[in-house]
Amino acid sequence: xxxxxxxxxxxxxxxxxxxxxxxxxPFWLAALAAALAALCALSVAIGTREVALADMIAALTGQVxxxxxxxxxxxxxxxxxxxxxxxxLGLAGAVMQGVTRNPLAxxxxxGVNMGxxxxxxxxxxxxxxxxxxxxxxxxxxxxxxxxxxxxxIGSLGxxxxxxxxxxxxxxxxxxxxxxxxxxxxxxxxxxAGGIRSWQIGGVGGASFERLSPVxxxxxxxxxxxxxxxxxxxxxxxGDELAAGLGERVAAARAVAALGAILLCGATTAICGPIGxxxxxxxxxxxxxxxxxxxxxxxxxxxxxxxxxxxADIAGRIVARPAELDVGIVTAxxxxxxxxxxxxxxxxxxx
Length: 350
Hints:
ABC_transptr_permease_BtuC, FecCD family ABC transporter permease, 350 residues, ABC_BtuC-like, cell membrane, transport, 72% helix
């Protein structure tokens, strides 16, 4: 058979990317899972009311006969929401960094979270959006439009979508959307209080009834993102080489970005815009796993869940008997980390 008649070969597995030794990855994965289990136990134990171990165990079996058991029962959905939201943001950040090959990519920095926030605020103020499903679809639409807009702006000019241009376009878009949110909310005193509280970003007040509508969107986002790992490995080799290996570059980017947008939009709809989780976690996970996305994406999901859960626990301890929302705590952690990345990476591509 001639070369012209040969069928198009499937893209070989681009697994052998430079990274950490494979033998250490299972160890770090087990350590991360154990740390996450410990954080879950702390999350249901720590709050404004001290709870005995017997009450914790009884509440986990469904009993709510005492005040302590009722307190633990209220913390369980909050813990679950922190786990899901943190995993979604950590995974979305890793996917965005892979899609854009930008070490500064993050749902907050690129304006995706603020795009979802603006869409929700406009929906509530102008179109009287009230149902949970409408909130989620509106947030996902806003996240998708914001991601498309930032990528289009960052692609203009010589050199295409460079990390620096994407970061600047995302930062400018985020500031502009934040100003628009204020402009929409200011004349509406009837919704201003709730919107301002939601915009800080938090997991307080969670319930299983609030969680159930968002679960299908999060599960779809998790599935699409994790299944994109092999394609992200190919994209990491460069567009030309990935295309030469048989990868459809535009389609691979679009599918992976769709998973990240679903995760960001659904998380913003239920928690509000929470920043820096998607920036911090993938960078830390690369120190443990290397750049192979088949390992990096699951690690980022677990790491994001752990970071957001730890931030929620810290917010309960620092301001007792009041609480700090996780959006405030992650900002304290993420802002210095962002400055460190800029100085260390000098805004190079991944």
